[in-house]
Fold this sequence. Notes:
- With about 120 residues, this protein is mainly alpha-helical.
- It is elongated.
- Helix content is about 75%, strand content about 0%.
- Helix 1 crosses helix 2 (about 35-65) and helix 2 crosses helix 3 (about 75-105).
- It has a domain at about 20-100.
Amino acid sequence: MLFCILNYPREIMLGFVFIFIIGKYFYKLAEEYNQNKWLFAILGIIVYYAAGAIGGIIIGVLSVVFNFEVDWDNSILMAAIGLPIGLASCWLFYYLLEKKWKKIEIKPIQDINNIGKE
């Protein structure tokens, strides 16, 4: 009983670490491009969990279609499957946001006399 109590918080803390890191990177990205910081920090976390859930559904459907066994009770296996899917989707979302915001970034004009001449 004591082992289960001591082992359980490690899994929770690992999840908190991922939430913190993902939120931090999206917060900094939004801050760099003058966007809503907390909105994009929360969206990054939502993308991580949504992609993990969608990846789990896809793996579940594939296991039924192709008739291969997946141990759904093994939490370590489920975390090992969901982690790369979630991180890859966060990276893709981060990359697409950064690419979009670089395009629409306003570049300052160096000389005030050139305003309106374009």
